[in-house]
Amino acid sequence: MSSTVTTASTEQRVAGLEARIRQAPEKFRVMTGDRPTGPLHLGHYFGTLHNRVRLQELGVDVFVIIADYQVLTDRDVADRLGEYMEGMLLDYLAAGIDPERSTVFNHSAVPALNQLMLPFLSLVSVAELNRNPTVKDEIAHSRQSAVSGLMFTYPVHQAADILFCKGNLVPVGQDQLPHLEVTRTVARRFNERYGAVFPEPDALLSTAPLLLGTDGTKMSKSRGNSIALGATADETARLVKGAKTDAERHITYDPENRPGVSSLVLLAALCLDRDPHAVAEEIGGGGAAALKRTVTEAVNARMAPIRARRAEYARDMGYVRSVLRAGNERAREIAGATLDEVRGAMGGML
After folding, report:
1. I want to staple 102 with a disulfide (CB 3.0 to 4.6 A). Which of 55, 62, 220, 334 is the partner?
2. Is the separation of the CB atoms in 94 and 321 below 8 Å?
């Protein structure tokens, strides 16, 4: 009963927030982004990219960070960083991020943003950072030979990412709520101690369903189980063909008992803008071969215009890099103004 009530309450809250966004989009500033640790994939597209474009189209001021510094939180070196950053830019533009209406920038280009880390760290305790469940999970899956101090400051670094531009709306999944709560805590404590400077950002909880990777586990850039946005039609066909299903021939949509099959059904349904139950029923006794054929055709049809735009942008990397330069310039101006405001509030410190 409590789970049902919680779900209903969450849905009601998201619906109320969505209504406010539609009524006055100019009052909101979204802050979101990705770490450049590998190619973006279909899970990113349906989970976040599609929503960023939607908010942009509504008139919300959208900031998208390429979090290059945060690559070092869970790995010893930042491999292929330049390649991944440029690939991410291509994916953003191909998916519909418009640099005239959204700001794309990267961490290392905005020193003032990172300077906010020091006063923000003074506002949280070691114990609070230590018990953050998202940090614990990330440490458990860390690729580092030893966990660095940067891992523990990760939520505070995210607070600086959000608050430097006074972001007041952050699209997140349920697992990211503890990080956002750190941001809200930092903003609240700073305002109480030094005067009102920062908003306490709201979480715009994602309603996007979870897509599993081709091996039946969470789709991830680092696990080699995803279909990249930049994949070709042939690569997509090969990856889908190798996806994990089960021994039962009749296709049903049952995420709890048939996760691999159901994730493929869901992927086809998302690409076709249809209900997954209806897609499963249509495939019926066709088995895994018919399911994978449906998925391949649906993905390739849905991604074809995105892939075409991506290829077009890739032919003019000078323009693509200019998008990042312009975004970095705007982010630096805003971060500098915020840092000046923080220094003033703190009596000239920093």
Report:
1. 62
2. no
